[in-house]
Amino acid sequence: MKLPYAEPYKIKVVEPLRRSTRREREQWITEANHNLFKLRSDQVFIDLLTDSGTGAMSHHQWSEMMLGDESYAGSTSYFKLKEVINDLLGMPLFVPTHQGRAAENVLFSAMVREGDMVPGNAHFDTTKGHIEFRRATAVDCTINEASKTTLYHPFKGNIDLNKLEKVFRSHPKEKIPLCIITVTCNTSGGQPVSMQNIRDVSALCKQYGIPVFFDAARFAENAYFIKMREKEYADHTIPEVVREMFSYVDGATMSCKKDAIVNIGGFLACRDKALFDKISMYCILYEGYLTYGGLAGRDLAAVAQGLKEGCDFFYLESRIEQAAYLGKLLKEYGIAYQEPPGGHAIFVDAKKMLPHIPKEEFQAQTLAVELYLEGGVRAVEIGTLLADRDPCTGENRYPQLELLRLAIPRRVYTNNHIEYVAACLGNIYQRREKITKGFRITKEAPIMRHFTVELERAQ
Ligand code: F0G
Fold it and tell me: Of 91, 264, 308, 352, which sees the most CB atoms within 10 A?
């Protein structure tokens, strides 16, 4: 008998969770203007809002925190991190940043200008936000299969080479500062990009003289999928796959809050010395001196350790199998989600769950509120609210996919928690026809509105 996967760690410290009543939750979500970001965390039982910065650090990481060197310049913790970035990722140059979007800010300050086009695979919202803030355009070149939730494709994060080449052909090279490959692709459902696709995109970019960067937040999870789904990598170790992935790109932005399993941190890595000099200036301006970049020395040390742990095969197996387990349970209840399960999350198809709610009433947000009311589970809308309004027309942008993301923090919840979440959604699925009203916006910000939007029940 094949032995089941089991977590390669045991629990040393626990954090109590409080269960609430439905009546309490009704009051709290109304006070929060039906925006789950506005809830207090102690009003939440199981928090699947994000897998970002919410992981449990290992005792090795906590030891590194104690060993952190808080020198302003030349901290030994910086050199620990430098060694891992050089050896594991093969990237020669880097600056630390306080998180992923800070790395984007530094990189795009150096590279992106008004009127530019930045192609990639479904850019994450902060990436798109930073591009649009500079009056440039993020062009989504993801393969069409990514928008069909029930269709199986092993690498739904892949970039369509024809779409990418079309961008390259229809704009002068000077207008395309870089191409971004997000591994795994969060927006299309935590879906991986194949090594073949990374290689092909890199070759095409080289042909047109366009630099290619990773948004590397979940690079280790992507490497796991390559090992499991791309035959020629079956016998490679995760670090070998990682090293090859990075060999095809000119640089990377990294949110360490994901696959480096820390609560805060990021970095920006590159190969080109001239670009490094440019980003150094912006790093000092926005983040801090080059050897700390907005982080404490102890954070740098924890990142260095976390990057190594994040590439452990058995850790990755238990993590990704946990997401798959949630997917399996939801399927048994008849609930549709982006298939196959993603690395860090399950993305429930809200259009299929609540087809009778008009898209103008935010189907995925309606489901998010319902899930909170049902069992105190917090998830996040990846749909019309997140897509913002078109900056030119001011109209709502209705994305092809209207999803509810259940993001699983690293090393935090047990499979009993997962079963609880699935049961909540199962109950909602059974009574879905009784949910007849969505929401309307009463207040919103012009960009990244989902964080602060206020909503009331549609009449
Ligand atoms: N890129 C990707 C693919 C991300 O998922 C995120 C963050 C970022 C960049 C920005 O990194 O948060 O460190 O500034 N994603 C979080 C999420 C917020 O919930 O998916 P950050």
Answer: 91
